[in-house]
Design goal:
It is a single chain. The protein contains ten helices and ten strands. It is of the alpha/beta class. The protein has one domain: NADP-dependent oxidoreductase domain (TIM Barrel). The strands form two sheets. Strands 3-4-5-6-7-8-9-10 form an eight-stranded parallel sheet, covered by helices on one side. α1 packs across α2, α2 packs across α3 and α3 packs across α4. The termini are far apart.
């Protein structure tokens, strides 16, 4: 067990179960060093997006690492104002240019822009067939978005990346995705460290000699949820993934399940300001 552990997507592609998220990592030296240190630790999964404005430095860090491109799983995303059929294909061309890559391992629709996401998905299907993306998926989609899209989709999304942490466990969305053979990927997987003092996390951290962050990442790992904890500090990157020397019992998992209170830190997909 370790950072090379993978889950298999519905198209047969393998995705490392744990990766590094780089949302709000500053373009330039900060994100460059964050990616370099993560790769040195053993991370092989990097998650970025055109919105983050740091694809260029992510790509440079991967190139400079000396690690073979096919050993690193790279995700990027099409932003809301880039959506639509032709716009999405251009957005991918722009992302690949910034990343200095011929393909990405996973390309996601960042948010379900009303009236556009089905058309955007058609572009992703074409990019997948052309080999520009090894796998395609969505982010922030609720079951009703997925139902609408699946009516017209020829290719099923491999993942749905959503806000998910102990206080927002997204059971309905997880159940829908599981039933349709899509994996769930968690953003804000640590709940932005807003409730590390929660009695359950404190109790389990003490029991296992771990930190609350490690308890959460282990819970996601055991739940087969792909997780991308974010940190630009090497020591924290190491800490977040030091989870392979203990196991949460079923009782531990049940206690974490009871923490779900629907505490959404980010925007609700149906209340997001899409500007349309």
């Amino acid at each position: 067990m370790g950072l090379t552990d993978t889950l298999v997507l519905n198209n047969g592609t393998e995705i490392p179960a744990i990766g590094l998220g780089v949302y709000k990592a500053e373009p330039g030296e900060e994100v460059y060093q964050a990616v370099r240190s993560a790769l040195e630790i053993g991370y092989r999964h990097i998650d970025t997006a055109s919105l983050y404005a740091n694809e260029e430095d992510v790509g440079k860090a991967i190139k400079d690492s000396g690690i073979s491109r096919n050993e690193i799983f790279v995700t990027t995303k099409v932003w809301n104002d880039e959506q639509g059929y032709e716009n999405t294909k251009q957005a991918m061309a722009n992302s690949l240019k910034r990343l200095q890559m011929d393909y990405v391992d996973l390309y996601l629709i960042h948010w379900p822009v009303p009236g556009k996401f089905t058309e955007t998905w058609k572009a992703l299907e074409e990019l997948y067939r052309d080999g520009k993306a090894k796998a395609i998926g969505v982010s922030n989609f609720l079951p009703h978005h997925l139902e609408d899209m699946l009516k017209e989709a020829e290719i099923k999304p491999v993942v749905n990346q959503v806000e998910l942490h102990p206080q927002l466990q997204q059971k309905e969305t997880r159940d829908f995705c599981h039933a349709h053979d899509m994996l769930i990927e968690a953003w804000a997987p640590l709940g932005k460290a807003q409730y590390f003092d929660h009695p359950t996390l404190q109790e389990l951290a003490k029991k296992h000699g771990k930190t609350p962050a490690q308890i959460i990442v282990r819970w996601q790992y055991q739940s087969k949820i792909i997780t991308i904890p974010k940190s630009v500090h090497k020591n924290r990157q190491e800490e977040n993934v030091d989870i392979f020397d203990f196991t949460l019992s079923q009782d531990d998992m049940d206690k974490i399940a009871e923490m779900d209170i629907g505490n959404r830190i980010g925007k609700h997909p149906d209340k997001f300001d899409y500007g349309v």
